[in-house]
Structures are given as structure tokens and as C-alpha cells.
Amino acid sequence: MTGKSYPAAPTARVFSGIQPTGHLTLGNYLGAIRNWVPLQREFECLYCIVDLHAITMFQEPAALHAATRQVAAALIACGIDPTRHILFNQSLNPDHAELAWYFNCVARMGWLSRMTQFKEKAGKDRERASAGLFVYPNLMAADILAYRANRVPVGEDQKQHLELANSIADKFNHDWEVPGYFPEIDPLILGEATRVMSLRDGTKKMSKSDPSDMSRINLTDTADQIAQKIRKAKTDPEPLPTEAAGFENRPEARNLVTIYAALTDKSVADALAEVGGQGFGDFKKQLADAAVAHLSPITEEMNRLLADPAEIDATLFKGGEKARALSRPVLAQVRDILGFVHSG
Ligand code: TYM
User: Fold this and answer.
1) pLDDT digits 0-9 by tens, 20-46
2) C-alpha to C-alpha distances, 239 to 121, 196, 242, 284, 304, nearest whole angstrom
3) Contacts of 148 (CB under 8 A, 6+ apart)
């Protein structure tokens, strides 16, 4: 043991992040953002627009800048309250990058090599992927643990990264003999739509990076675009099943009904009790109405906020300062734990 003791981690602190690349999708909304809002009633929450993660793949500076403001506006429009909680873009707090370096020295190459997201994003030519893309999960762990946060609401696709973050926390606590210094992270994978799939292929995740815009619903889409994308969504010739067991080998049917359930605040079983047996033609109209009713007030508010970019920037700067005030003592403690000569 080092013999020194450090203040206990907060009992419950929420952290989550989202990349400012392209437009936000219905997947981001149903899988993550929507679940972030009610957590604000119970916990202290930090929500971060992860621009450092975004540049692990090349981003046009002007597009990155615009997307950062757009994500901030979307989060506020969805109900994130930057006055009572913390909303900021990651690069405003350099403590994330510093802690990520320490974690680069804790995480093992073998752990990182097993990350499915790295394999997907790097594709066949791994030699050409950025080193940043490889150590991406270490930065994610740093985002969370710079605040010693322990609750992280995410979609299903981020679960493996959070398991890796827990391995990093464990190894750090063990190697430097500071049991419990970094808390165990609890992934919060909430709601019916934890993995929203592409509208063109029910076996692929809905993603902002899919080359086809018809594969996703963006939070910036107009009512007409939403209706058109749903009308053209891939389906099969059978009517909808009346029970979830009937989704077997019908990924598109499962996806559309799951989206409908999430948008109308029902379980999938209740949604099927309502729409089971319908043909896709009628169901798609109902789904489009539900999507438009749910999303258009958000899009409207987002556009209103985007008319005042200076106000959005000021909100992010304030969030960055509040975030830094929380992480500064943690980083000082970590330097101390590591044995650095430091001044606090
Ligand atoms: P990102 O920007 O890809 O996605 C943001 C959030 O949206 C969820 N999500 C989905 N959920 C359901 N269905 C989908 N099709 C779908 N697509 C995206 C993601 O699971 C995520 O919760 N690495 C993270 C960002 C990050 C982070 C963090 C998250 C950086 N640091 C620390 C949590 C904690 C990412 O790229 O998310």
C-alpha cells in the first residue's frame, strides 16, 4: 500500500458522451440521449460532446465545428439542462487527454485488439488506422474516470468499451494499490431500443456514418423526409406478428416495431398487441405519425437554439469550467498516486 488515503469517490455520478460527427440519428436519440434526460432528476450528470474521439477519423474542421454546436443544441432541445448539470465539449477539459495517456500505459494491447468497434472502423487495412482509433477506449475510460463517475447511460454498442474501462480501473487500483480509487462503472443500457437498426438492412446498426441517408432518421429531418424514409424502409411480405417470437428471421419487422414501441412509450409486447396482424402499409403510416409527433418539436427547438451560436458556445464554455473544477483534484490525486513530482 502507498499508505496514503484519498477522498472516497462520489456515490453516484453520471457521465456519458456523444460524437459530433454527422447528424444525430434516431439511434442516438432512442439508445442514449432520451435516457439521459430523466437521470438528471436523480443524479449529478455530465454530458460531453466528444470532439477528441471524433478526430480519430479525419474530420473537416468546419464540419466538426458545426456538428459540435448542433449536438449541443440537440441535447438541450431534448431536455438536457446545462444550468443544473454539465454540458461541454471534451477538448475544453484537457484533463481527459492527460488521464487517457496514463490509461494508455495501463490498458494492454491484447485488450484493445479485441474491441469489435475498432475492427469495424479500421476495416481490412488496420495498418492505416490512426493510433488514436486503437486507443479510443482508453480515452473513453478517462472521460468517465476523470470524474470518478460510476453510471454511464449508453446504447448496446458501447457495452464492450465500458467493460474495458472497468478492466483499466481494476488494474490501476490493483497495480498502484489504491483499492476502490476508481469506482466500478455500471453501464445503463435502458429502454426498448438499445440497438436501433438501419432502415435499409435490419441486421446493421443505424449509424451517422452509413453512406445512405435513407438508412437513418436524423434529428434534423423534416416531417416529409421522415415519412418518406419510413415509407421506403425495407420490409418483408408478411403481416406483422402478434408476438415477439414471430420476429425470428424478420430483423426489419423487429426493428420497426421496436422503434414504434420506444416512440410511443410502450413495451414491444404492448406495441404488438396494438399493431400485430397489420400489413406494413398501414403500420408504416402509424409509425411515421408517431416519429413526426415525437421528433418535430425537438427539431424545431434545435433550430431555434442554433440561431444563436454565441449562446451555445457560452453554455459549452461554462460547462467546460464546471467539468474542470471536478476533474482537477482527481488528476492531482492520480499524479500523486503515480509518484510524479507535482504541485497539486
Ligand atoms: P456515439 O457518438 O457513436 O453514440 C452516442 C450514443 O448513442 C448510442 N447509439 C445507439 N443506440 C442505439 N441504437 C443505435 N443505432 C445507436 N447508435 C448510437 C451509443 O451507444 C452512444 O451511447 N464512444 C462513444 C462516445 C463516448 C462515450 C464516452 C460514451 C465517448 N466517451 C464515455 C459513454 C462514456 C460513441 O462513439 O458514441
Assistant:
1) 998 899 999 999 999 999 999 999 999
2) 36, 21, 9, 12, 41
3) 9, 10, 13, 181, 182, 183, 330
> Same structural domain for residues 319 and 299?
no
Q: Which atom of ligand 1 approaches the CA of 193 most closely?
A: 12
Count of the separate structural domains present in the chain: 2
Residues 6+ apart with CB under 8 A from 237: none
Is residue 79 assigned to a domain?
yes
What CATH number is given to the structural domain containing 294?
1.10.240.10
pTM greater than 0.90 (yes/no): yes
Is 208 tagged catalytic? yes
Catalytic residue of the set 4, 119, 124, 205? 205
Residues 275 and 324 in one domain: no
Distance 153 CA to ligand 1 centre (A): 9
Beta-carbon contacts of residue 182 (< 8 Å; ≥ 6 apart): 9, 145, 148, 168, 169, 172, 173
Q: Which amino acid is at 56?
A: T
Q: Which residue in 171, 208, 266, 318 is the catalytic one?
A: 208
- Domain range for residue 286? 213-304
Quick: pLDDT tens for 334-344. 999 999 998 88
Q: How far is 198 from 176, CA to CA, in rounded Å?
A: 44
Tell me the CA–centroid distance for residue 30 and ligand 1, in Å.
11
| Angle in degrees, CA 307, 16, 36, rounded to 5 | 70
Grid coordinates representing 312 are: 451555445
